[in-house]
Amino acid sequence: MHDTTEPGLQSDSRAPRPHDAKPRSDSPWAIVLAAGQGSRLAQATGGRPKQFLEWRGSPLYWHSVLTFGRCAAVDGVVLVFPPDVLESERERVAGLSRRDALGLPLRTVAGGPRRQDSVRHGLAGLPPEAEFVLVHDGARPFLAPGLVHRVAEALRNAPGAIPALPVTDTVKEIRKGNDGRDVVAGTLPREGLVAVQTPQGFVVRLLREAHERAGERDVTDDASLMEEAGHEIRIVEGDPRNVKITRPEDLALIADPEVLCTVAGLGYDVHRFAKGGEEGRPLKLGGIPIPGDMRVLAHSDGDVLLHAVMDAILGAAGLGDIGRHFPDDDPAMEGVSSALLLDRTLELAAGSGVRPFHADVTVIAQRPKVQPFRDEIRGNLARLLQLPRERVNVKATTEEGLGFTGRMEGIKASALVTCRLTPQTTHP
Q: How far is CA 358 from its chain centroid?
């Protein structure tokens, strides 16, 4: 096993986690399986395993790692590679992690000849303190943070949780006919059937025991091993966009989609500073805590910069504003992380075929001084938006002592987010 927590990459002083949340004691690690040979796609890919195909400047498996890196619910990732490319991929992972300022501990291990062997090796690569694990296929690059959070949340009260979608097609059971050809043996009631996805979440100890009991018997699904052991596996809502690249026709999903047009949205938000006996919330900008005694009055966590960005994205997608989707009289929004709301905003926009391409934000305040935190804010915002750092710009200005910001009564932010509008029939 190789741990990429080397100096300058992911040490104990690593970059701030997305959402700026502290890891929970029950936060899972993730295992990304990238050790398969992809034989069904070999001819279409020239023999290259699908998980190593390049998409948007990164191998397919890395897109899932980026999503896990955006989820405060995940404490680290173990990547499982074919033994013959372990060293080269370990070096590539180190470079990718530096490039994208991932801020998440990464480990790399060699896989085995079968999927279940690779899962076992991934489990062995987890740190001793890991109690929960999410097992994910490296060829599912369209993973969204919302799905990760659903599975992780369900694990709090279950030995296992898996995402699934209802089966909409009629399913037939088949058998061999008298002439040796396939014939229908019966029709299965689809009301009781679901199509299973990854990541699948489990209690680490129980999953290890299930794999030990399997021995040399071939299995393709970790949840089935847990079911055989008598564990009740929770079902959570899957994501139809969470497609696994399996067949040659799936390669169209990772081809650069035709850009139909570019749209832009303008966002603006204001929060008043707490004064006197008002409690307020600690000041955050772009998910980064700003030290000092300045506090804002807000129903959520009051991150004025992220609120402006969310409004801009919703505007580009023609979906109204944040008050429509996250009303300030909703008890569920009390103190909620604005980064989590941004995740949901990105999902809503993706459903309308809109993806952020560039963001330019301005913070307007007499104080605090934003300059000392500008690079940190820029990096975290780029990570949250899943954009290269060079496509995110963060500015700050005062209003020369004029108005409510000049009197230091509050803080405001504006955002211009440019988005690509792509066909809604493609992936998000």
A: 19
